User: Fold these one by one.
Assistant:
Number 1:
Amino acid sequence: MLNHSAIKVSQLVKTVTTQEGELTILKGINLDVKPGQSVAILGPSGSGKSTLLGLLAALDTPTSGEIWLDGTPLSGLNEEQKAALRKQKVSFIFQSFMLVDTLTALENVMLPAELAGMQDVRNLAKKMLQRVGLAHRLSHYPKQLSGGEQQRVAIARAFICAPKVLFADEPTGNLDKQNADRVADMLFALNQESATTLILVTHDLQLAHRCERQLLMADGQLSEPTRTPVS
Ligand code: ADP
Ligand code: MG
């Protein structure tokens, strides 16, 4: 087996042009994440966390620097190749769930597996929904589900293709404590079972400390504070 990182980032810079001029959102990010690791990214609103996640997931293009996703340098890929790589290796969970309103829970979970041309998709999707405790909600539409249920559908959808890397942007941000805990339990259980690398942006310190690593984004720079022992 190749011994490469799940994600490696070197000198990543992202600058955008705004009406007020150039804005450098990311100012030289370096990062190395091993396969199967769970990493939390903390930091104030507006510090560049979502921008970084979008770049790592090959949804956006950096101004300079390089990203290797499961060993593949993203700079060498055109849009089509990036889309293929995303489909093959990456899943994304958003704070706002991002389910398709016109599809049932089951159909939402089936969708990425169908796009990937997998076999026996309906049964697989049923198993995934059972896994997140929603076997009794297969034919419900997103509007007919609670926030916690919708996020669990999103998790089932994210894991159906057994992604190498799962990115989650404030996955518990819209949930109450009980549902946040349940969603976190699911994330870590599936992370362990399928050895998925987990990169999650969160304001929830409890969730962050369930991850193996905690990184801090501040003003476009990423640091890894050494944990101070609790006295
Ligand atoms: P976070 O997720 O940490 O809250 P973001 O990555 O969403 O931060 O954004 C970082 C900063 O960059 C914010 O100030 C945001 O307004 C700005 N920003 C993000 N994307 C763009 C863009 N496409 N054009 C202009 N400004 C942007
Ligand atoms: Mg954000």
Note: The beta strands are 7-18, 21-33, 38-42, 64-69, 72-73, 90-94, 165-169, 197-201, 213-218, 221-223.
Number 2:
Amino acid sequence: MKSFSPSETELRNVLIPQNRLQERVSELGQEISQAFDGKDLAIVAILKGSFVFAADLLRAVKIQCSIDFMGISSYAGQPGSGVVRITKDLDESIAGRNVLLVEDIIDTGLTANYLLQALKQRKPASIDICALLDKAARRLIDLPIPYRGFEIPDVFVVGYGMDYQQLYRNLPHIAVLRFNNEQNATRDANGSDQAGDKSVS
Ligand code: IMP
Ligand code: MG
């Protein structure tokens, strides 16, 4: 893990409090339970960011389903390409099953799109995305997200499983992280300071 001094980053406001997360996850669970009732549902959670969301979502889904995990990390040399390295593959086959790809956040959409295309080659019966957060303003690719928790402004967020340099995953809510130094400021460009003061209802 890279080290950084605490002064480089600063936790700002709570964007989504714990009770709103719980309410929305429970609604998503109901929607998914209805949509996949009577079908063979295979939940696929993308590690690490989605593990907290996936654990809560799984318990909000009231129909029979399985869960499997895929670990990915982006190639250091190709930021923004969407090409990822699979660090842990699925344990079970998804052929012929109805897959729900669970992601923490869709930003440009390149990562989710890459995974979608890669998993389609394994011949699932269907494959849909469920994302807790959607930074729609940053999207570079058209990507349907039938199950979406919240649309958020273009700010860098942490908590509820999401990290900055592997930290802050343990926050029970979603908070805005502000970068104080120039180098990291590019990661939350486009007026995030102002946006960081907004909250999501
Ligand atoms: P995309 O390929 O641009 O859609 O970005 C995908 C991945 O970048 C997400 O799955 C996250 O792991 C990470 N990411 C994007 N925005 C944030 C953020 O605000 N906080 C933490 N991780 C983020
Ligand atoms: Mg992710």
Note: The CA atoms of residues 41 and 124 lie 10 Å apart.
